[in-house]
Amino acid sequence: MSAKATIVIIEDEPAIADNLIHVLEMDGFNVCWFATGEQGLAYIADNAVDLVVLDVGLPDVNGFELCKTIREFSDVAIIFLTARNDEIDRVVGLEIGADDYVTKPFSPREMLARIKLRIKKPTLLAATQGAVSVIDLKSQSTQPSTDRLTSVNFDFCVDGKMLGLTAVEFKILDKLISHSANVLSREQLLIAADIAPSASYERNIDSHIKAIRQKLKPFALADSIQTKRGFGYFYKQSPTS
């Protein structure tokens, strides 16, 4: 990579952090490690960061609450790192704005692959930032805007106001809009969001759809995302679009 991407690790266990730091630095990343949420939050607020690896069980703050705070001012990619393996925790983590969820014990190499996946797409498409268009993340083709929605800097804008979508939410909504003539399965939407399809993760798509609808609701566009029971979701264009 031409410029080192900066990864922030917020993890209170030095052994876990050291292993991850070693793998990331060997691959050319700039890594900043913080043992508390307060220290990590202060750094993220004042510096350009490409991705955050965030432990849920921090000594000073719950990782879920810290994620919510970060989402108030930043759309940086966030990967939760936690010993919790319950499905409800994964759902909650993704609902509040995380892009991925990795459980301990984990392979540092697998984490490296997940991190590179989260950073790769924006890097490859950086030249298109600022353009007003709907971006197909798989083909990188552009298509006309639909309804009152336009794509700007990996978010969607409605009537001049940004929706504030997470990376996962943007990819899902973009996929639905760019394939509005088709019903897309949960598996197809997982693939569009760069999440490996699995039975345990498929229902998480429902949580992301719910979050997207909530962000569309103030603009009376929540019903644009329709459910096809037993199959998946599709985007319903307005008659005037």
**Global shape:** globular
Helix content: 25-40%
**Category from helices, strands and their pairing:** alpha/beta
CATH architecture tag of the largest domain: 3-Layer(aba) Sandwich
* Low-pLDDT windows of residues: 121-145
* CATH topology term of the largest domain: Rossmann fold
GO molecular function: phosphorelay response regulator activity; transcription cis-regulatory region binding
Organism: Shewanella fidelis
Pfam family, one: Trans_reg_C
Keywords: DNA-binding, Phosphoprotein
Describe the SSE topology.
Layout: E1 6-10, H1 14-26, E2 30-34, H2 37-46, E3 51-55, H3 63-71, E4 77-82, H4 87-95, E5 100-103, H5 108-124, E6 134-135, E7 142-143, E8 149-152, E9 155-158, E10 161-162, H6 167-178, H7 186-192, H8 199-202, H9 204-216, E11 225-228, E12 232-235
Parallel strand pairs: 1-2, 1-3, 3-4, 4-5
Antiparallel strand pairs: 6-7, 8-9, 9-10, 11-12
Structure in words:
About 10% of the residues have low confidence. The chain starts with 5 loop residues before the first strand and ends in a 6-residue tail after the last strand. The chain is globular and about 55 Å long. It is 39% helix and 20% strand. The strands form four sheets. Strands 2-1-3-4-5 form a five-stranded parallel beta sheet, sandwiched between helices. It has two domains: 119 residues, Response regulator (Rossmann fold, 3-Layer(aba) Sandwich); 109 residues, Arc Repressor Mutant, subunit A. Helix 1 crosses helix 5, helix 4 runs parallel beside helix 9 and helix 6 crosses helix 9. It has 241 residues and is an alpha/beta fold. Pfam families: Response_reg, Trans_reg_C. Keywords: DNA-binding, Phosphoprotein.
